[in-house]
């Protein structure tokens, strides 16, 4: 599920955190069939946006695209979030979406 290069970077810096990230978060939590990948991506993006964790958005935007969310759906989600997380948080998230579109598809 997660990009191996990102997990490898985490594992090099903090081996235990890398193992927990891979085994618990991506191999267990993200694989549960109670929520689908689209829902998990929307929840994750909303949380990252609300908390202002824009450094994590590029990875999760790419994952959201792989989980079937279109650019229009993501833009609509960030527009909706502006009213609940605040304008600066939503605009920052939209900036990351624009940056992602400038890069080749993952």
Automatic annotation (TrEMBL):
> What is the species listed in this Swiss-Prot or TrEMBL entry?
Microbulbifer taiwanensis
The organism's superkingdom is given as: Bacteria
Annotated Carboxymuconolactone decarboxylase-like domain ranges read: 15-96
Q: Which InterPro entries match?
A: 4CMD/NDH-1_regulator, AhpD-like, CMD-like
- One Pfam family linked to the record: CMD
- Protein name, please? Carboxymuconolactone decarboxylase family protein
